[in-house]
Amino acid sequence: MIQDTIGLVSLGIAIISYTIYITHTVRGSTKPHAITWLIWALLNGFVFSEQLAAGAGPGAWVTGAASIANVAIAGLALFKGERTITHLDWLCLALTSVLLFSWQTIEDPSIAVVLAVIIFMIGFVPTLRKSVTRAHEETATTFALNGIKFFLAIAALSTLSVVTVLYPLVLGIANLGFALYLIFMRRR
Fold it and tell me: What confidence category does residue 103 fall into, taking pLDDT thresholds of 50, 70 and 90?
């Protein structure tokens, strides 16, 4: 089935993109923000279960892989990542914790996915804040590949609906946009 093939390609891109990011982090050229990656790990775990329940099929594989990779990066960030954590970063973590807890009471999958998108964007804030002055501490290639993988994940979905499409669509756009932002900031 074509969706299985696209799902596998998307999963392969995810493995490559996270391998690059983790390798750069171990070498010290990338400094991930632990709060961002912790938020994304939790979020992707929640979204993966929602996608499976909504019948996403192979299109959900990439979200499951992202959750596992995000846990690894969050752990690695504690030792090799960004050391400056601001009040804004803690606020982002607190807010997403409340939103993730609230998620459990939401019965409408469409509202849950919109909430997931909001949580993802809040989770991006600590990394965006850091990247304003230190864009060289992020790996643009990883974010570009992640953008591509999320668009491929959409093509691999067994069921197309707001519940299955909105999250990978927004993440695809946000990741590609951030990659372009990093490239722009480095050249500036």
Answer: confident
